[in-house]
Amino acid sequence: MNFRSLLVILLILPLISIANPNPPAQLKVTNLKTEYLVNPLGLDVRTPRLGWIIEVAAKSVYAQKQAAYQVLVASAPDKLTEAKADIWNSGKTSSNANAQIVYGGKSLTSGQKCFWTVRVWNQDDAATPWSPVAFWSMGLLEAKDWKAKWIGDQPDLVQKEYQAMLATYDPEKNKSFKNIKPVGPSSPMLRKAFNVRNNVKEAVLYVSALGYYEMGLNGQKVGNQWLTPEWTDYNQRVQYQTYDVTKSLKPGSNVLSSLLGDGWYLSMIGPTKWHEDYPRRGVYGNDRRLIAQLAITYADGSKELVVTDESWKINTKGFIVAADNFLGQKIDARNIPAHWQQVGFNDGSWSNVYADATVHKNLEAQKNEPIRIYKYLNPQTVKPLGDKYIVDFGQNLTGWTQLKIKGQKGDQIKIRHGEMLDDDGSLYTANLAAAIQEDEYILSGNDDVFEPYFTYHGFRYIEISGLKSLKNIETIRACALSSDPDEVGGFSCSNEKLNQLWSNILWTQRNNMTSVPTDCPQRDERMGWMGDAQVFCQNSMFNMDMAAFYTKWIKDIRDAQSERGTFPDIAPHANKPDIRFSNAPAWSDAGVIIPWRMYENYGDKELLRQHYDAMKKYIENIRRQNPDFLWLKDVGNQYGDWLNANTVIAEGYSKTRGEVPKEVFATAFYANSVRLFSKMARVLGNEKDAAEYEALFESIKKRFNSEYVNDSVKIKGHTQSAYALALNFELLPREKEASAFDHMLDCLKEYDYRISTGFVTTLMMMKELTKRGRNDIAYRLLESERMPSWLYSINQGATTIWERWDGYVKGRGFQDAGMNSFCHYSLGSVGEWMYRVILGINPDINDPAYKHFIIHPQPGGSITWAKGSYASINGLIGVDWKKEGSTFTLQVEIPVNSSATVILPTNQLGAIRMNGKGVSGDLLNLNHKAAGETALELGSGRYDFVID
Ligand code: BGC
Q1: Which residues contact 59 (CB under 8 A, 6 or more apart)?
Q2: CA dihedral defined by 77, 82, 86, 92, rounded to 10 degrees?
Q3: Which of 65, 512, 703, 723 has its CA 20 to 30 A from that of 813?
Q4: pTM for the full model?
Q5: Nearest protein Cα to ligand 1, atom 8
Q6: Catalytic residue among 783, 803, 832, 893
Q7: d(C-alpha 223, C-alpha 765), whole Å
Q8: pLDDT tens digit string along 399-419?
């Protein structure tokens, strides 16, 4: 099409402006959530927060907003009418908020079930239909509601057995603890038979344990959760789970059964690796204990409780001979008593349990989505290696192997798990350190189905030994396990290797979500390292709905705050948080950075309120120790910009040149936390604090400049990371930014346009390159296949993100086995850049929770098309763009009750066709002045742009 014909078309097309109201019947309310969860059971938040999204049926409906809502809450679904709602009728409430709506009805009581529905009115005062019904139930709100006792086997058995094992072990000879095997005593089996009358209306089971539990009811596993209860600082609180078991009960005899394992409570856990108190098992306590309470309500209103107490039976000769998170587990299938979980089993020879009156725990309802098996993977290859077999599942994952097998009674099978193979095709396990992750099975002679109970592994490959013939195995598959919020992000583009990178990032996130955000899932760490988590936080939120997960984890952070005010480096923190692993810059700062992300992405002011004093105390401690504004004291382990160029073995990489000086790094993070805190104070309306901490930020900034920045704007150390940090945290006077950026480019050139930043500042550098007009270099780094680079690992077959750029180098082999995980998400934080720059999806901190957001795709590198989406808390955002010749097309979806600034790559309004028509000037955002771009302000709807 030539210019003249385009002009003619533009002139005859009527200019459109998207403002006309649309039929409200096209709107509907969906995705009802309570405290971020879908139909949660057992909440202990007394005034839960509600949220929903509004969907639109027709493509052609635009600019829809919520002007008011009405929530009904009732004790039964059929009471959800205005006349009958017996718990809460909010009435028609003028508000555009569709999340963080605080329940305002009658005060709620333990075990109460609440059904709810909502409708909204749009800007034209037309109402939607009532939404589908959702519900929540309350947990046990008072300690006195727990009538159950903590039960288990006799005290101290676990420690005795462990000490006996240690007595045979010479730590001097093997400092790495490499040869520790899982030790017992075995997992006890517990059971309780009880009777139920006819006409059960509802039965709710509340359960928790010190250690892991697995609960059964009449032979069926209760729920689909694994590794319960999850990891918290058990000295502060233990989460319990709530299950609706109404359908599993039957009139007459019933049986509750349970297995108990060590879990994080007793297992070896990362923090104990450096624990001063030997031995390293039983950090939180020594005895596995169960607490359970089954509340039955009959149709006639009468109630009955079945609780853990002295009447439960126990068999301490368990078939789970030993189990440990790091070490693996051993099962002797010959010892599984037939039908022990069923009604009619004779437990006459079992003992009575020990009821432990010494346990006093703060029981709290689980706040986050449980750990579930979310995917099964079949073997890609099974290859013999000597008398063993190597199985490749084609994907590095966290979970375990499930095996259906029939062999001779007493045959022993061993499965070892690893992430990589050695060059000779054998399993590489050197990087696991003490976490040997081996499972052993002794066959019963019948059909056996093996699956670990109380352990998990990080692996792609397994080695099976002891197998007489492959024919013995009926099925083998890997079960992928993680905390299980919804996946909310999507990404694909014309560069297949970037698609693999995106997939690797998501897998690495999944693999590191076993109730806390861990650094890695395989070696003997698996801890909630806070530096890694803050770097990856926004990426994690683009990938999955992390609101509930972080709500729980931020409390774990608070639990580990010391009296002095330090935040930990790892949460939960099993050592003494005031002594070790606390207050390392960029690690402890996660305690400020992640709450701010919760506000930006989910609008969570309540969390800011709850966490406010803790953050203030954290900052005040640093201020007290460092009255001179430079963060030099109380810096804990001062990891600095971890795994920077000095640790990379590559041509042109020296051992000293790449690292930003630690004092520069620390002070930059101090400034950033203070500034974020001041912004949070402002959000909460605390103007006095806001002003005070803004002033403190200015003082730190001033000192940062006078101490570390010279007259030619060179920052001490002159490293890529120093400039990335200073620019990203806005620590330099505006007029000096351009020079600093030039220095950063020089530092990139020095490394031949490769990365010398550590994992803390890599993403910052990518962002600054894009922001300051050198997107070409950002794309060059992203698409580079030369080590160190993201795609280098992809070319080596990586299916997850490696801890080190050079974790494995062809011809050279593996990096230092002492620290070489192939499943660390930190360097995967570049996924955030992929969402923000390739797709162009950006939250707007001034109107959080995607009430307003920015769509700004910035094509570059080899990429000719990209598409993706993000299911935000406010609804689905979609982007799909393509470059063909000189034509750029873009489809954008903006959810109802949101608006967006869409930034297009032309400064010619006339060159833009929107939905086949020209664009009215009243949609222009005149504040956007970037060269070569046009910004439009748009309401909800689906838009097609063509730019020639
Ligand atoms: C972990 C890291 C962590 C670091 C602290 C490592 O061992 O795996 O990811 O942040 O220690 O520097």
Answers
A1: 941, 942
A2: 110
A3: 512
A4: 0.95
A5: 519
A6: 803
A7: 45
A8: 999 999 999 999 999 999 999
